[in-house]
């Protein structure tokens, strides 16, 4: 049975959406690693960053998957459930970084370390950025 133009277009939209979700997922992970650098200057970013770290910790402790993972899998299945290579060249390697194959124990330890490192960074910001604490003249 031949695919219609509408079906191919719909499949391509699902593929592009899945690739976009992987990219957003990758950027979110980068934000969790380096968000404190921005968060010490912007309170809103700090709240989002600390909330994201707490959410990541809860996900790992509870052995749950990130909602972005579920969304990406859903979109991939809607695109083509039989496809083995699921994206473009760049997305293929970004996926390898996002969905790195390590033990859950290692991932939990890494998450705890990341949370503690960022917490230390936020708490020591007075020493790192003393000019931010001076009253405005």
Which structural category do the helix and sheet elements fall into? Answer: mainly alpha
Ranges where pLDDT stays below 50 over 5 or more residues in a row are 133-137
In DSSP terms (H or I, runs of 4 or more residues), the helix count works out at 6
Query: What is the first-to-last residue Cα distance?
Result: 75 Å
Helicity level: over 70%
Beta-strand residue fraction: under 5%
Number of domains: 1
Largest sheet: none
Give the mean pLDDT.
80
- What's the total count of β strands? 0
Order of helices and strands: HHHHHH
Gross morphology is elongated
Gyration radius, to the nearest Å? 20 Å
Brief description of this entry?
This protein has 137 residues and is mostly helical.
Verbal overview:
There is one protein chain. The protein has 137 residues and is mainly α. It has one domain. Helix content is 74%, strand content 0%. It is built from six helices and no strands. The longest helix has 35 residues, at 5-39. Mean pLDDT is 80; it is low at 133-137.
Structural descriptors:
137 residues; mainly alpha
Q: How is this fold's topology laid out?
A:
Layout: H1 5-39, H2 43-62, H3 67-79, H4 89-98, H5 104-123, H6 125-128
Helix pairs in contact: 1-2, 1-3, 1-4, 1-5, 2-5
């Amino acid at each position: 049975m031949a695919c219609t133009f509408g079906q191919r277009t719909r499949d391509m939209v699902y593929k592009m959406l899945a690739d976009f979700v992987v990219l957003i997922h990758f950027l979110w992970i980068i934000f969790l690693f380096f968000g404190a650098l921005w968060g010490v200057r912007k309170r809103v970013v700090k709240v989002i960053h600390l909330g994201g770290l707490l959410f990541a910790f809860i996900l790992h402790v509870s052995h749950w998957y990130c909602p972005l993972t579920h969304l990406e899998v859903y979109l991939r299945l809607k695109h083509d459930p039989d496809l083995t290579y699921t994206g473009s060249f760049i997305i293929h390697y970004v996926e390898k970084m996002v969905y790195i194959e390590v033990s859950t124990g290692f991932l939990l330890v890494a998450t705890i370390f990341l949370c503690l490192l960022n917490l230390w960074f936020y708490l020591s910001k007075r020493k790192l950025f003393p000019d931010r604490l001076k009253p405005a003249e």
